[in-house]
Amino acid sequence: MLKVKILETEEEKKELYATRYKIFVEQEKSVPAENYKDGLLKDHSDDHAYQIGCYEGSLLVGFMTLIVKKDDELLEVEQTHNLIPQENEKYAEVMRLVVLETSFTKTISMKGKVMNLLFETVKDIIISENITHLLLQSREKSKKMYEKIGFKQIGDFKLYREKSYQCPMKLDVMKVSEKVVNISEFI
């Protein structure tokens, strides 16, 4: 049975960071290895981010990171794409959203179920943190999926960390609250 939780222990987070490293540094080569010599893809923003994991038993099958914007700090998507924060909007950035290839996630419907569970947890954070908009950076291959959820492209594709081209996307959570709650039908 699939369960989603906000990761709290260092052991859980270390597993997540090691998995992210394998995917983004070793497999996709979309993040430079020289910045992560310990085999853990962990950034400064991870210290105050929500790490959300989806498990089938003890097996990690999907995850995402949600970084709630703090007062005057710029989120990575804002820095990369020179975005200007809008007054009266509270942002969080979705990063490293992944559904892993496992025996439990072979079908599109199971991948959708994992995504749905991850976003259900995000919904709870959105409410508790009074977030009005989600931001993310998308590669071309993922852009259509995010658009189906309700994200809109708000800038041009730019080189991210000198490795991959990504565009900024934004979701007004008040306009699409139902889609954030049940996205599996859109995938």
UniProtKB/TrEMBL annotation:
SUPFAM superfamilies: Acyl-CoA N-acyltransferases (Nat). Residues 17-163 form the N-acyl amino acid synthase FeeM catalytic core domain. This is GNAT family N-acetyltransferase. It holds the Pfam family FeeM. It comes from Bacillus amyloliquefaciens (Bacillus velezensis). InterPro entries: Acyl_CoA_acyltransferase, FeeM_cat.
